[in-house]
Structures are given as C-alpha cells and as structure tokens.
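User: Here's a chain of 380 residues. Predict its fold as tokens.
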Amino acid sequence: MWGDTLTKAQRAAMGVGDNLVRISVGLKDERDLIDDFSQALNQASAKVSDVHRSTYGVSCCTGTKIKREHDTKRMNVFIIGSGAIGKTLAVFLKLSGRNVVLLRGSVDDKSNYTEKIQVVLNNQSVLEAEIDISTLSNFAELEGVIVLANKSYGNENLSRALTGKGKNSPVVILQNGLGVEQAFVDGNFSEIYRCVLFTTTQIIGPNKLRFKPVSISPIGTIRGDDSTLKVIVEHLDNPHFRFQEETDIQPIIWKKAIINCVFNSICPLLEVDNGIFHRDEQVLEIAKRVVEECVEIAQTKGIDLSVDQVVESVLLISRSSDGQLISTLVDINNKRETEIETLNFAIVDAARILDKENAVKETKLLGELTRFKSYLNGST
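Assistant: Prediction complete.
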C-alpha cells in the first residue's frame, strides 16, 4: 500500500498521519460517491452504536441531559419552521443519516405528510431527500434536539406550546437578532443554545432551494453545559451545513445582529438585492454609519467589536449573496410580518438602557421606515 515504504517521521513531514484514509475513486458521479459513503458509514456507525448500547445500556436522551454515545445519528432532531433554512438543514441532516422531522411553526392543523425537497449547491449539483413534515399537536413529547428555524416574533407562543412537550430537551435557536432567546429563558427551559448562521438560503421554486455557505456557523451556550453543546454540534454538523462550538457567543450574536440591521433595513427600503453594498460606494457609506452607531453601543456593553471588522463582514456577505433578496424584503413583498423588532429596535432598546439613544439615530430611523413600509404594504 502507498506509504508503507516511508518511515513514520517521513510520513509526518508530508502531513500523512496514522488516521489518514486515502481513497481512489476513479471516474464516478459525485452524488453516487456521497450515497455510497453515506450508506457504508451509516451501517458501520449503526453496528458500533448497537455494541455500545448493549455494553453500557445508554439511551439517547435521559432527563434534561443528552448522553454521549458513539452513534448520535439516532438522536431525533425536530426542526421547527418550514422556511428556507429549516428545509435546507432537514435535507442535509437526512442525507447524513439523522432522524429528522420538520415541524411547521405557524400552522398546527395536525397534518402529517412527506415532501421531496431539493437543495442546489454552489457547484450547481442538486441534493434531495424525502422529509417528514408534521405539527406540534402530533407529538406528546419532543425527545431529542429542538432546532428553531421559525421567525423570532413567534417565540413567545412557541415557548408556551413547548412547555410540557420539549422543556426537557435542548433548544437550539437559529434566528437573527438580539434577545430572541428571552421567551425560553423566561419559560425556564433548562438548556438553551444560540446559533449564529453564516449562510444564505433562497427559495427558487416549489420545495427547491439554493444554499450558499459563507462560513461555519457557531453555536454557543445561553443556558446549559459544554458537554451537551459538544453533542449538539456533533449531531447537527454535516458536510454541507457546518457548525462548530463557540465558548463566547455574545460578540458573534452582536456582530451578526448589526450586520442584519444593515441588510434588513437598507435593502428593503431601496428594494435591492444583497449585493448593493459591494457594488455601490454611496450605499456602503450609509451602511458604515449604521455600523458605527451599533458598534458604539456594543462596546459600551463590553462587547469586543470594531467597525472595520463588521464592515468587512458586510462586504463578504454582500459579495457571496449578490443577487439574493434579504428576508425582510421577501417578507414585505409577501405581506408577512418582519423581524425588524429584534434587529434595529433591539439595538435602540439597548442604547436607551445605556442612556445613549441619541447615538443610534440613523439605525432607529431606518428601522422605523422599514416598519412603516411593511405596514403600508399590508403586512400582518
């Protein structure tokens, strides 16, 4: 076999470790390769898991803690919210061998069905999976990991609905904005985690989505412990939609909230796509002023952020999502409620508490204009 003639030191110098697996695949369609590897790994993982459970008698979830076991694929994932992010993640998890159910967040009509969902990747290849779709009323208890991909304005109602069904399971919030976890903190949920998404996902047809990763999405603890966080990340991470542990999530939450203040107010008001900031210097100057205001509030609260750092991320996202519409503009066009309250107005509220409301005048004005545009367009 290749490498057998080299010493261990020679292999190490070449970056070849004992855990390296070299595979010769020849000429074969990449989707066939993915399917072959997924099937083989799932079978191997299932055998390891069966041995582990028979030896240690460990179940996937016990009480409020997720127990570590070799095969976390058998843990249930309940994704609440059947929008672009929820459907995309469900497809990737299903293809990675996870047990996943997509729960509709705004409708609870006891429906239960399966849909074929397609996701188009950067290289134009298409992944698809049959996803089980249901509603909360069909479950007496949600035992596993609960992932929130719904709109944040529904969190108070959702917190009440999950009491008694999922209060003993960890809740992972995949939402933008400040304080979106508060309803679950107030509801005394024992394990709450925040994820900051660095991806763009767009609906391009019936059950067809386009997915573009910008960076790995970090998950951090709001309430809970590091061991559970580790298991959650291991369970949600997959080759297409990457996640990682983050020990200090608050600076990242603030950074992404400021970025979203820029995109979710300026783009809807100008009725333009996300690429406007790297294409037009005048619009970028408006964005910079908003960033300066918001970073001042973050720094006053002890959050370590710089203006240049945030502006650089605005430009990165603008380039990577050029041609895509921000969610608030899509919501306004479809007469749906927006999440502007957890963005611009959440930062204004933070500034007011610090007696610095005058420092965020443009941020507040853009939020008010976006809110009014939504109202004039007939959003509910």
